[in-house]
Write a structure and sequence with these properties.
With 708 residues, the chain is of the alpha/beta class. The structure holds ligand MGD (2 copies) and molybdenum atom.
Length: 708
């Protein structure tokens, strides 16, 4: 264990990594006294963390040592969903689970489905051992689309991958567009960068339908209608051309399809954009002028703008903007949605797709799990859920719950807490938290690998996810050696040693041990453990002279890959499914467009059971504009029913001009069982998928609100 001993107190400081689904992936320092963690702080010497933690993770000990932690395996004894369980031994649990999985697999392994997301983002306790196990089993594959895949594909078809600016450069920008992002809630370390930029004179503009705490602190807030981002981006393109702000030299050298893009954008005059987005013409013209003339210009795009039908195309359009003005010339110019593509990962060695041995199982989309549980053919007969809480977070809850209730479905949930999903399990298996296990982290917000050392022993009988799968593999008679790899071996396998961006210290350590193979990988990992964190080797402005990971190496306004799939090669504006424009009859019955962005004191549905954090969020709420509230006879503080044809939930009405007329904002994601009516916001969201990436459209959702 890499730790520092303080001789006077006997306290030990252990280096960790925050595991949560957040762009910031903080480096942690955990103080341990006589086997008990007593303090968790942000590492002061890790530049992106800078010694600070968010409100949630600064309460980490309250979560870790919560009396509600699951500490023994549980067998269901009541009806599904009733939450009635009895303790069992690991031996009984693993025996029963292995028997059932073996029986289903003998008929058809595709009837088994793993369901997981980013409860931990660790490469070990995330998919490292789990995917190996499911590949060996031949289970259905899971399309992990619930969060970011629309934007990810938008980037992939434009820049060629999840690459972008170094977040540590934003402090040097002259202009920052904070687009579909509320960093004070969801990425507080980026917000520090933006504030530093502002102190140095930068202009900050928020593009968000809601006046968030972030938008309020920017120089300007452009409050567009949900799902209209593609139109706004087309309007900016039209105006950059009209106002002669295009960097033609850079465009000619490093982009594909400018003329076609310009022709498409020509129709998007300020007047049309203003009508489509619910803005003024002056806002559109002024935004383009600022964007084209203040340098360096940086865009922090976040996933809030891709949760509607046209989210993938909108991400394509926004990802194309920096190229038009040559912003990539500057280290502090360009855009950042995800930095995930800056890390070299050896996927083959890490999750071992070769264990499929030629089988090609079907793929089930996690975002339509409600429909899949009802309709998949052959049916899903067994599901193993880990690092996820689908009953609370997946769209269209009534269908998801109906699916989890099926008596012929065998469900195993590996969890730290008794979540909404765990309530429907046949077996609940207790999992360790980040303080209790080893892990390796790459991130989607900065460029540092971070290692997590276990600080304390597992609580009760909790086991790391990896150990659960190792033991299950034994029970099922899988002999493959890689299914017994240690956590450190799984982590080491993920490091692509031949990737030129491997951090220098890690590359040196690997070179001293032959440069390739398991020994070298282990040396690199051990070096990371000693350092705690290490930055990928990449130029500050890696795209100043092009060199994008796209097929052409250029920014692709026109994508030959999309054309080859019979899709529109150029990005376009696609109006939301649920809007006056696309579905006037629906809009007449359900006139309010509902968004349900992250709550500050929760991390998706994680932390809802931490008393102090839940107290800070109080109860589920829905914000309505004073005009919309008055039209419905609703006053501030009234309990209301939010509903549409899919379902309904109860929330406390907050009347506020922070939201636009016509837009309802319901902050997520509560546990169903922790709400007054037993249903959270996903009771009304739908299963329709985005244009690219097969992603959910949580914010493409019309509702009506009435007194409860
Ligand atoms: N505290 C906290 N932090 C979190 C999370 C959390 O739940 N709580 N979730 C984490 C996760 S999983 C993710 S994926 C990340 C990023 O998660 P994101 O979903 O990107 O969240 P935010 O950064 O809060 O940005 C969303 C913002 O987009 C706005 N928005 C909604 N619809 C639209 C639209 O159509 N167009 C535009 N332009 N804006 C729109 C919302 O009002 C909100 O302010 O955050 C992570 N960080
Ligand atoms: N309406 C609406 N719905 C949304 C969103 C929205 O904006 N609006 N956002 C969506 C987004 S962006 C996302 S990413 C998804 C998130 O959906 P999920 O990935 O399901 O995230 P969480 O709700 O945080 O649930 C993660 C669970 O993993 C568990 N966990 C954590 N660490 C470990 C571990 O080491 N082992 C095991 N076994 N379990 C662990 C936690 O206890 C927690 O219950 O939700 C989506 N749902
Ligand atoms: Mo997410």
């Amino acid at each position: 264990m890499h730790s520092e001993n303080n001789d006077l107190t006997g306290d030990v400081i252990v280096r960790g990594a925050c595991p949560h689904d957040c762009p910031d992936t903080c480096a942690l320092q955990i103080t341990v006294r006589q086997g008990r963690a007593i303090k968790v702080v942000g590492a002061p010497d890790h530049p992106p963390t800078h010694g600070a933690l968010c409100t949630k993770v600064s309460r980490y000990l309250e979560r870790t040592y919560s009396p509600d932690r699951l500490t023994v395996p549980l067998r269901r004894v009541g009806p599904k969903g009733s939450g009635q369980f009895e303790p069992a031994t690991w031996d009984e649990a693993l025996g029963a689970i292995a028997d059932r999985l073996t029986e289903v697999a003998a008929r058809d392994p595709e009837r088994i489905l793993p369901y997981s997301y980013a409860g931990t983002m660790g490469m070990v306790q995330g998919e490292g051992m789990a995917m190996r196990f499911f590949h060996r089993l031949g289970a259905s594959l899971l399309d992990r689309t619930i969060c970011a895949s629309a934007g990810k594909e938008g980037l992939a078809y434009t820049l060629g991958g999840s690459v972008g600016m170094d977040v540590e450069q934003f402090a040097n920008a002259g202009l920052i567009l904070i687009w579909g992002s509320n960093p004070i809630t969801s990425s507080v370390h980026f917000w520090s960068q933006a504030q530093e930029a502002r102190r140095r004179g930068a202009r900050l503009i928020a593009i968000d339908p809601y006046r968030t705490a972030t938008a309020e602190r920017c120089d300007q807030h452009i409050a567009l209608l949900p799902g209209s981002d593609g139109a706004l981006a087309l309007g900016i393109i039209q105006q950059l051309i009209e106002q002669d702000l295009v960097d033609h030299d850079w465009v000619a050298r490093h982009t594909l399809g400018f003329d076609e893009l310009a022709a498409r954008a020509a129709a998007w005059t300020p007047d049309r954009v203003a009508r489509t987005c619910g803005l003024t013409e002056a806002e559109v013209i002024g935004l383009a002028r600022d964007y084209g003339s203040i340098k360096p210009a940086a865009i922090r795009l976040n996933y809030g703008m891709q949760r509607t039908r046209g989210g993938g195309n909108a991400a394509r359009l926004v990802a194309g903007l920096p190229a038009l003005i040559g912003a990539w010339r500057h280290a502090a110019g360009g855009m950042l949605l995800s930095s995930g593509g800056h890390f070299g990962v050896d996927n083959q060695a890490w999750v071992r797709p070769d264990l499929l041995a030629g089988r090609r199982p079907r793929t089930i989309n996690m975002s339509t799990i409600g429909d899949a549980l009802a309709q998949a053919d052959p049916p899903i007969e067994a599901m193993i859920v880990y690092n996820a809480n689908p009953v609370a977070v997946a769209p269209d809850s009534e269908k998801v719950i109906a699916g989890f209730k099926r008596d012929d479905l065998f469900t195993v949930v590996i969890e730290q807490f008794m979540t909404d999903t765990a309530d429907y399990a046949d077996w609940v298996l207790p999992a360790t938290t980040q303080l209790e296990h080893f892990d390796l982290h790459k991130t989607y917000g900065h460029r540092w690998w971070v290692a997590n050392q276990p600080a304390i022993a597992p609580l009760g009988q909790a086991l790391p996810n990896t150990e659960v799968f190792r033991r299950l593999a034994v029970r099922m008679g899988f002999q493959d050696a890689c299914l017994q790899d240690s956590d450190e071996a799984v982590a080491a396998s993920a490091l692509a040693l031949d990737d030129p961006r491997l951090p220098a210290a890690l590359a040196t350590a690997a070179a001293e041990h032959g440069g390739s193979g398991p020994k070298a990988a282990r040396a690199a990992l051990d070096m990371l453990g000693e350092l705690g964190y290490a930055k990928v080797q990449e130029a500050d402005a890696p795209f100043a002279d092009g060199g994008f990971p796209s097929p052409s190496g250029k920014v692709e306004f026109v994508s030959a890959r999309l054309a080859a799939m019979g899709m529109d090669p150029l990005p376009d504006y696609l109006p939301p499914y649920e809007s006056v424009q696309s579905s006037p009859e629906l809009a007449a019955r359900f006139p309010l467009a509902m968004i349900s962005p992250p709550a500050r004191h929760f991390l998706n549905s994680t932390f809802v059971n931490v008393d102090s954090l839940r107290a800070a969020e109080r109860e589920p709420g829905v914000d309505l504009h004073p005009d919309d509230a008055a039209a419905r006879g609703l006053t501030d503080g009234a309990m209301v029913r939010v509903f549409n044809d899919r379902g309904s939930f109860l929330a406390r009405c907050k009347v506020s001009d922070r939201t636009r007329p016509g837009v309802a904002a319901a902050w997520g994601i509560w546990w169903h069982k922790r709400t007054q009516g037993g249903r959270n916001v996903n009771a009304v969201t739908g299963q329709a998928l985005s244009d690219l990436g097969r992603a959910p459209t949580f914010y493409d959702c019309l509702v009506e609100v009435a007194p409860a």
